[in-house]
Amino acid sequence: MELRHLKYFVAVAEELHFGRAARRLHIAQPPLSQQIRQLEDELGIRLLERTSRKVGLTSEGELFLDEARKVLAGLDRAVERVRNMAHGGEGNLSIGFLGPAALSVLPEAIREFREQNPGIRLDLTSASTRDQLRMLRSGRIDVAFMRLFGHDASEFRTRLFVSDTYMLAVPEGHRFSALESVPLSELRDEPLILYPRHLEPQLFDATIACFHQAGFSPNIVQEANTEQTSMALVAAGLGCALVARFSRKSRLRGVSFVPVVGELPSWEITMGWSEAAEGPILDRFFEVIERYRRV
C-alpha cells in the first residue's frame, strides 16, 4: 500500500463518482479504478459498492475513509512542520541574560517574539556574564545578554543591545530624593549597597576607582547580587544603590531615583552569540530585537 492509494480512495469516497474523482486527481479513470481495486485486494475487503448507476461506501469503507483522512492530514502536518522549521517557524531558542537586562526592554522584546512565533520554545536562563560566556562556548545557550566590561568575547559575535546611564536609588524621603541630580562626590558619607566583587571583579574595581577619583572610599554596608535585590534593600532603608536608569520601571514602593553626575563605568548590555547558533530561528529573534535596541 502506498500513499497514492489512500489519496485515490479518499477522492473516490468523497466524490462517489470515478469520473469526477479522476478529474480531481488529474488522471484517467481506468488507472484510478485499477488502483482502488489493488487497494481492496491488498486489504482483502470491499471498500466500495459499485453499480452501473452509483458508487457507495461499505461500512468498512466508511471506517477506512476516516482513518485514511487522519493519515493524510498527519502527513500534511509533518510536511508543514518540517518546512516551518527550515524557515525558523519551529524549534528551540535558549537565551541567557544578566539580571539587570530583565529590567530593560528585553522582556518586551521576548514577549513580542513569543507572540509572533508560538512554534518556537524559549528557554531562559539568568546568569552572570562569566557564566553566560561559558554557556555560549558549550552551546548551552544560543544568545546571551551580558555586560562585557572587562570580559573577552572576541570569539563570539556581539552587538550592543542597550546603553544606559546611572541613577541613585534612595529610600523614599531621603534628602537626595528632592534633588534634580546628585554629584558622585556627595555619596562620601552615604551607606552604599554594591554587588560582590567576585561577580564582576574588573567592573567592581573600576567602580571603586571612580569613587576614589571623586575623593573618597565608599562606605559599603551591604552586598547584593542583582539590581532587584539592591532596590529591595534600599526600600528597607539599608542604604543607597547605583542602578541603571531603566530600573525605575520596577516602581518599587519606598524607592526614589535621582540621576548621578560623575565619572562611572559604562552601563551597557551587549548581545553575544556563536556562529554555530546562527540560523533561521536566531534571524527571526534578531528581527524583533532590532526594534528594541536602545543605543
Structure description:
The strands form three sheets. This protein has a six-stranded mixed beta sheet, with helices on one face. Strands 4-3-5-13-6 form a five-stranded mixed beta sheet, sandwiched between helices. It is rod-shaped and about 105 Å long. With 295 residues, it is α/β, with parallel strands linked by helices. A hairpin with a 4-residue loop joins β1 and β2 (55-57). It folds into three domains: 3-86, Arc Repressor Mutant, subunit A (Orthogonal Bundle), CATH 1.10.10; 96-163 and 268-292, 3-Layer(aba) Sandwich (D-Maltodextrin-Binding Protein, domain 2); 164-266, Periplasmic binding protein-like II (D-Maltodextrin-Binding Protein, domain 2, 3-Layer(aba) Sandwich). The chain has helices at 3-15, 18-25, 29-43, 59-86, 106-116, 129-138, 201-213, 227-235, 280-289, and strands at 48-50, 55-57, 91-97, 120-126, 143-146, 157-164, 166-171, 182-183, 191-194, 219-223, 240-244, 255-261, 267-273.
CATH superfamily of the largest domain: Periplasmic binding protein-like II
State the assembly state of the protein chains.
Answer: single chain
CATH topology of the largest domain: D-Maltodextrin-Binding Protein, domain 2
Number of domains: 3
Biggest sheet layout: 6 strands, mixed
Which CATH class of the largest domain applies here? Alpha Beta
- Count all strands and give the number: 13
- Any idea what the radius of gyration is? 32 Å
Structural class: alpha/beta
Strands of the largest sheet, in order across it? 8-12-7-11-9-10
N-C termini distance: 61 Å
Helicity range of the residues?
25-40%
Individual helix count: 9
Mean pLDDT: 89
Low-pLDDT parts are: none
Name given to the CATH architecture of the largest domain:
3-Layer(aba) Sandwich
